[in-house]
Amino acid sequence: MITVEDLHMHFGGFRAVDGASITIEKGSITGLIGPNGAGKTSLFNVIAGVLKPTSGRVIFDGEDITGLAPHALFHKGLLRTFQIAHEFSSMTVRENLMMVPAAQSGEGLWNTWFHRKRIQAEESALRAKADEVLEFLTIPHIADEKAGNISGGQKKLLELGRTMMVDAKIVFLDEVGAGVNRTLLYTIGDAIKRLNTERGYTFVMIEHDMDFIKQLCDPVIVMAQGQVLARGTAEAIMSNEAVIEAYLGTGLKNKGLKSPDQAAGAPA
């Protein structure tokens, strides 16, 4: 579904991504891990159109999408979430979801004057869709809450819910579990699994919680110093000496890879 070919992203003399090549299979939940400064977020930003690469290509369903803007990729079904949720804080949770689909009739001044019934019908359908999404995510009780007032974990669920308001093909999750309590993390993980198995979503996720990675991801890709270090199952990755060394350093590699939170400190 996604092929990244010899990707480079340089910032002056700093090589954030230094010749990375990866393949994301359709229908997979792929984990992307690595120590701070490994290039994970820069790789995400290039694929999602936030950054234009120094060189290399990104292929999506056979089409070269290198350098396309995020809104163009949105219409192709490629979406991403962010480590810090970006909600409209003064709007309700339901209204945040209803804002997602593009080209709504109510956005045009002409339609607000002459096509009110069309706008009302669209809004009714969007409301029903938003309520269905909230039910799927098991958070219908916060539908009418201001998005700025809900918890961090609920905001992560709202970000996931936004991807359900359109025909997403692949979703890039940037530390969806960061700062989330274990109960909500379970809810988020369950939603990701169900979207994958029931609705055919493909996911790629940067994450520092290895237990979360083990529960959800196959394969797991490890980056270090802007390059791909290893790829395999979570179990194989966690016993890979090169991966352990990248996280913990040569002198500590035999002590065991626990979790990147413990090994690498703050998120990259």
From TrEMBL:
The keyword Nucleotide-binding applies. It holds the Pfam family ABC_tran. SUPFAM superfamilies: P-loop containing nucleoside triphosphate hydrolases. It is an enzyme of class 3 (hydrolase). One of its GO terms (molecular function) is ATP binding. Residues 2-250 form the ABC transporter domain. It comes from Aquimixticola soesokkakensis. This is Lipopolysaccharide export system ATP-binding protein LptB. Keywords: ATP-binding, Hydrolase, Nucleotide-binding, Transport. The keyword ATP-binding applies. GO terms for cellular component: plasma membrane. Its EC number is 3.6.3.-. The gene is lptB_2. Transmembrane segments: none annotated.
